[in-house]
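look at this record:
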Amino acid sequence: MRNNGRRPPRNGYDGGRQLLLFSGTERAETSGMKSTHARCRRLVLASVLTCALAVADNLVAAETPAAKIASAAGALLATLNETQREAVQFALDDAEQRVRWSNLPVTMAERRGLRLGDLNPEQQAAVHALLQAALSKMGYEKVIGIVESDEVLRRQGGSGSSMFGRDEFFLSFMGRPSATAPWMIQFGGHHLALNITLAGSQGVLTPSLIAVQPAKFEWNGRTVRPMGRETDKAFELLQSLTEEQRKAAVLGFQMRDLALGPGRDGETIEPEGVKVATFTAPQRKLLLELVTEWSGIIHDDAAAARLKEVEAQLDKTWFAWSGPTEEPAKAYFRVQGPTLIIEYAPQRLGGDVTMHLHSMYRDPTNDYGAKFLTR
């Protein structure tokens, strides 16, 4: 790596002699000259060591997720024209843009930023590179699956099909991309809203809407279920409960939709269901694996920190189920703790509830990175 475009001296002596040439014109006595040479050599060696350590620190910093994400954002910005750069950028404290997300199609709920369908192939590739940097491998694949499910809706035709499709997703930045200062990435459209707040080594994905329709489809010769693991893991957890635990977990009423979906920022609900404090070790493991389907969408470092936080609060966490218990994907469920709310709600619009799924992921103490922004 270059050091401000300058080459360091080859060794301490040469550098010291050069410093002497520019330090004065009078000839020193032999003993004084030797002493000066020695001091200069020490100074240069210390300077070289300091520079080497700084370069090493920069190399480490360049490998951090925060730096990679900021770099990917910068690479995207470099592909945009002035109008596009103005369209993608919002102030970090823009309250209206912060909440401009929804489960609805973009024709029914306005989004702002860069529309993917308006970008050329190079720019679209840069958007995907940014998403890959900000998300885990699992998270990126889940997001792309949701986007492609919307393309399936578009290709099915019929009235209103033009409001669906992979072109109708938007990207925006709130604040300037940075490896150290707080900023946000927003990406979403129909059935998807990612709110990624970054502040140096810290990152949060709350609040985020993760939904899909159709929940199962064929794509390039394979069956895709973008929310399949969430569905299966929740049912496996329910099946693992004892009779007493199940009685506590299954609510006596039917939840028809998300309680804390879009437009519900800052609201709370009382915990219900069974206390995770009563779970066995295998049941706790199942619950954490379920939570990971949301917490693990963000890049691996932030995901690991988030899961550690959730795990530390398991004794204060609840699991609730509302609806049929005989098969997956037909019932509402919720995981709720001091810093966690996950909701999953099958939708009746479209007929088959197993094919139209909504979910919400929140941290009531840190949505939109509130903790980062108030420091």
Remarks:
- The two ends are 34 Å apart (CA to CA).
- Residues 65-373 form one domain.
- DSSP finds twelve helices and 14 strands in the chain.
